[in-house]
Structures are given as C-alpha cells and as structure tokens.
Amino acid sequence: MKGVMFDYNIPKIALKKIGIGGDFSLVKYSDAWPVPKIVHGDQVIVKTSLAGICASDLHQITATMSLYASIMASPVNPMPMGHEAMGVVAEAGLEVSGLRPGDRVVYNPVNRCSFYGFDPCPSCRRGNYQHCFCLLGVGDGSSREQKYGGRRKFGGFGSGGFSEYMLGFERQFHRVADHVPDEAAVLTEPFTIALHGVARHMPRHDDTVVVVGAGIIGLLTIKALRALGSKSRIISLARYPMQADMAKRLGASEVVSERDNKKLYTKIADATGGSLFSPLMSKRVLYGNKGPDIIYDCVATEATVDDDLRLVRSNGKVVLIGMDFNFTKKVDWSLAVWKEIEVTGALFSGRETCEEGEIDAFDLAVDLISRDPAGFSGLVSHTFPVEQYQEAIRCFRSKKKNNAIKVALDFRVGPR
Prior knowledge:
Oligomer: single chain
Structural class: alpha/beta
Shape: globular
CATH superfamily of the largest domain: Medium-chain alcohol dehydrogenases, catalytic domain
C-alpha cells in the first residue's frame, strides 16, 4: 500500500526543534506499507480518494506544533498521516450496519467514547467531543478498555488519509450524497472546524466581524457564517488576489489586502468607525466600543494575535481558530484586561447549536455541503498523486506563487 507516515522519533524531533534535519526527515513514504485489517467488528476499511493537506500536517513534520498535542498522539508508530479524507468503503466488519462497500464517505478523525462503546466521559456528555478522554487513550474504566489494548494503548487523533486505505470505526465515517463531488466532500473536516468556531461564537446580525486570513479555514469561516444565517458585516483580511476573490465569492462584505501594518490599522479603524490611539513606545491600539465586534483569527501567529488584541473593540471578542503560535514573546496580553476582551479558542468540532437545534458538526457539514456543493467549488485548487507528496507540500507552502488554496493528495490517479 502506498502511503506517507509520520515517524514519531523523539531524537529526530529534538534535532528538528533545534533546526537540524531535512524538510522531510520525520516522514516516510513507501509503496509497500501493509494494508490495514479489520480488528473489531464495527470497523470499516476505506479506499482513499482525496486527502487534503492541513497546516497542522506541516507543523507536524517540521516539529513546530505545540508539544501539548503530544498527549493526543497515536500509540501507533509510524503513524499514518492525513485527517482530511474522503473515499469509498472497501470492506465492512460483521457488526457494521449503516455502511456497505461502495459507499462514498468522509472521515471524522476525532475519536470519542461512543466510537469505542464506552460510557460517555464528562466532555462527551456536554457535546465537547474534541476533549474526549479517548483521544488520550482513556476509557470508562471498564474491562472494555482491554479490548482495545488497555489504557493509553488506543485512541489518539485519527489519521490515515495519506494512504491508499484507511481503517476506522463505522461511526467515524459519514456517507456522502452522490451529487457531491469528491473535491467538495474532502472539505468536510475543515468545514467542521469553521462551523465549530462560528456556531459557538455566533455574531449578531448588526455586528461587524473580521476574519483574519483567507487560507482554507478563513474562507470556510466566511462560508460558515453565511451558511448558518449570519447577516453580519464580514471584513476578510486576505494576502493574495486569489484569496480575495474567493472571500468575496463566499460572502465577505469587503476584503482588505494590506501588508503594511500601520495602513492596515488605519483601514480597519476607518471601516469600523473605531478610534486609534498611540501608547508610549508601542503600536497603536483601537479604544472604545466602536470597531470590530468579533475577530476570528484563522492564522493566529504571534503577530496576528497581537493585532487582534489591538484592533478588536473594547469589550469585544477574539476567537482563535488558527494555531500558528505557541509561546509568545511579543503579544501584549494585558490588552485583554485593559480592554476587557473575551479571548477564546476553537478546536476541532463537537455537538453544535444552530437554528435546527443541537447537531454533530459532521452531520451539519455534510448536510450544508450537500445543499450547496457548487458553493465549495474551486477551493481544492491543486491535487497531486501520493508519490509526489513533497511537491504537494511545497505547493502548499508557496500559495502566492501557485495560486494555491487547498492542496490534496489524489489516490484516483497515478504518478504524472
């Protein structure tokens, strides 16, 4: 089986952390990986069609992700990569009742109690599946844990989409309607992230919101706002022309493409009626109750987080959906106190609340994409066969040069 695996090698990770090691020293490609086998009756094997490359995949192979994530690492090594995946059911276990070979499905990588048959943990009872103890290999303390190898011997954030075949529980896969193209279906997982961030922090219709970043999560956040019925004014901060065009198409009210920090601050203040002031020996800051009501930061670098705190109105909200920062040295976090800003994060997805009531984010995403598959066209801008995974990652890294939005590995074709 062809596939790309992550080598969880602590000495190599340590070297990578100090800048030693090649670009792909932590990953292995082979065309001879063993095909996964069904171990439990409620599992299925899926033949991968498309698998999107996520920024977190790049953080993983460059060892720039927060070490906090290591508590959710899979106990399997080398670990299959790729969590944004869709494909076709190839084989179903004896206890599988809702799927059959030939079904097109999308993958939910966030393991939770119900997938294993455990009594729900406190997080699962609240619909916060993204914080389920099963991600850490902790079940309900029953003998059922031994079925999966024992405590800390199972779980982890799921992956496998960068391989020809992937294995998972039946309840990790959601059927895709026939009329939905593969290129729209593969966006389901990142769309759940956007839906989660928006549904839990929904703006009022008369709010002005700023979406920082027009990569795939930023664009899908705009889409999520409109799909969930928001009539708020959306200002998209986009770096490149193709991002700006897509942001407008997906529902942004206006787009600001400004690299100069001083000019950016002025444009946001002018656009929102905010007032900028200049503290002693520091960057300007917007003060008072006029300005962006909510900032969804879909990049979340150290620089953008500092900008968020300075540009959101007093008593406003900052939602960090991106994860491009760890420890910070230059963020003035005291602004969260001075301006009484609510700062919150949004991770993965769970059970969300919308006009229809409470719903699993994956069910919601599948439904919304099914209603409007054309609305997601063009977001998958580049595809590569898995043999060319290095070229695919380089394409992802050079978005401006390649006009790239979402880059995916394509298992429907051979090498070009």
